[in-house]
Write a structure and sequence with these properties.
The protein is an alpha/beta fold and about 300 residues long. The protein has one domain (about 10-220, about 250-255): TIM Barrel, CATH 3.20.20.100. It is built from ten helices and eleven strands. The strands form three sheets. Strands 3-4-5-8-9-10-11 form a seven-stranded parallel beta sheet. Strands 1-2 form a two-stranded antiparallel ribbon. β9, α5 and β10 form a beta-alpha-beta unit. GO terms for molecular function: oxidoreductase activity.
Length: about 300
């Protein structure tokens, strides 16, 4: 059994959670739409994550839609006391699987109620508001209206804590004017480091930062430098990429996803990998080109 104690803990909301968590998105079918090919394996992966010590699962009712939340409930309900489930709202899927904004008060309320029903919960511990101003990446614009709706649902007792996803630093500050931000979830990894300053600012406020696509997402991270570091320390490139994130800042919580037990074990084992300073310096150069601070674009990234 994999031991993930090396990842350490950090506070999410009011709970200390293991910094190595699990993201459920890949449990749905292709394109995060429809059921998985092997539902029994999907449930076994969830069970395996809990058995290994994972106590933080990231999900959403628009994964499937409804599929991942239903699988989580089938596999894990009644939930262990130490398990903390984080979900997100603001989108819906059409009949072809397209991602559409769903930010009206009625849509957000329905999304929270759907998450509660499909997960079998009376209260959602953390709900992230995902900005849909630009679905492909953070873009400036006010999120005051949907944030206010979620604050009202929090007052009704349907939500304990609120977070943000796919947002800018300005949007984080705007939200903090009217309520606490429990976490921020943005895309970030070895090759996509536009949030470096935001991570450091959040660490100063003891707010967790949760990178989605920590391994590159639908285009997995590829780099000669990453491969060479992995070979020298006898690990896989993806383990190195996850270990780098854990060492990047203590407020980073990881939610790598997978639909197989073997990949789950590989991901979780990265919790015990310590990268030497010399190798960290090599990895940092993946992002920084010789000409300056620009994303490195070679070798398939």
């Amino acid at each position: 059994m994999i031991n993930i104690s090396g990842a350490g803990h950090y506070t999410l909301g009011e709970w200390p959670v293991c910094r190595m968590g699990y993201g459920a998105m890949q449990l749905a079918g292709p394109g995060v739409f429809g059921p998985p090919k092997d539902p029994a394996m999907a449930r076994r992966v969830l069970e395996g994550a809990i058995e290994a010590g994972v106590d933080h699962i990231d999900t959403s009712d628009f994964y499937g839609p409804h599929i991942t939340n239903q699988l989580i409930r089938e596999a894990l309900h009644p939930y262990p006391d130490q398990l903390h489930i984080v979900t997100k709202v603001s989108a819906r899927r059409d009949e072809k699987g397209a991602w559409l904004p769903a930010l009206s008060p009625e849509e957000l309320t329905r999304a929270v109620e759907d998450n509660l029903r499909h997960l079998g919960l009376e209260t959602l511990e953390v709900v992230n508001l995902r900005s849909m101003i630009d679905p492909h990446g953070p873009a400036e614009g006010s999120l005051e209206a949907p944030w206010t709706t979620l604050l009202e649902l929090k007052e009704r007792g349907l939500i304990r804590h609120l977070g943000l996803s796919n947002v800018t630093a300005t949007q984080v500050r705007e939200a903090q004017k009217s309520g606490d931000v429990a976490c921020v979830q943005n895309q970030y990894n070895l090759a996509q480091r536009q949030d470096d300053a935001l991570i450091d600012a959040l660490a100063g406020q003891n707010i967790p930062y949760v990178p989605f696509f920590p391994l590159g997402g639908f285009t997995p991270l590829q780099s000669d430098a990453l491969d060479e570091v992995a070979a020298r320390i006898e690990a896989t490139p993806m383990q190195v990429a996850l270990a780098w994130l854990l060492q990047r800042s203590p407020n980073i919580l990881l939610i790598p996803g997978t639909s197989t037990l073997s990949h789950l074990e590989e991901n979780l084992d990265a919790a015990n990998l310590v990268l030497p300073h010399s190798e960290l310096a090599v990895l940092d150069r993946i992002y920084r080109s010789e000409e300056g601070d620009r994303p490195w674009t070679g070798h398939g990234v």
